[in-house]
Amino acid sequence: MKVRRALVRRSTKETRIRVDLVIDGSGRGNIQTGIAFFNHMLDLLARHAMIDLKLDCQGDLEVDAHHTVEDCGIALGQAYAKALGDKRGIRRYGTGFDPRNPWTGEAYVPMDECLARCVIDFSGRPYLVWKGLDRWPLRQLGREERSGDMVCAFRFGLAREFFQAFANEARCNLHLELLYGDEPHHIVEALFKAFAKASDFACQKDPRLGDQLPSTKGKL
Description:
Elements: E1 5-11, E2 15-22, E3 29-32, H1 36-49, E4 52-59, H2 66-84, E5 93-94, E6 108-111, E7 114-121, E8 127-131, E9 140-147, E10 150-155, H3 157-170, E11 173-180, H4 184-203
């Protein structure tokens, strides 16, 4: 099987990003964004999605972490779209991970006191549903990162910005839901892990399809 791989470079006045993505990888991550907590989230994304991901971002952290996080979502979404190509033979739908049975329609990832759910469809239509996750829009996560005289930390709300940017550029339906939970670090980690497992399943080849598209439209 041909290895599905994409290299994306994206430069603006706010960020310079290079993404090297291998969909059919082994879970290796090499992440440098300047934000330790965000590095951790992208590294565990690579591990649990079984992709190989090299991502380097130089962003204007002296302003805020927002541009870095959102633009990484844009670049990663573009890499997925490029690596998946015409999407022939993929399962298309991903329902995440249920510790009882990974093939059921119920898709949950537990993280201590949290329970998160992710469902994804690489449909060609971008849409994000962000449900049960509006309690912590400004809560700081992780160790504060100092850049110059400013403090750059990963705010909880930035997770939504990342996933919205990814959904837009990967052109997928992405539904993320928090069933319950209290600790923002655990919640964001559960969301990234659920996203990893859902995207992994959706990107896998279904041997029954061969080179057919998983759509009656003839295009995704």
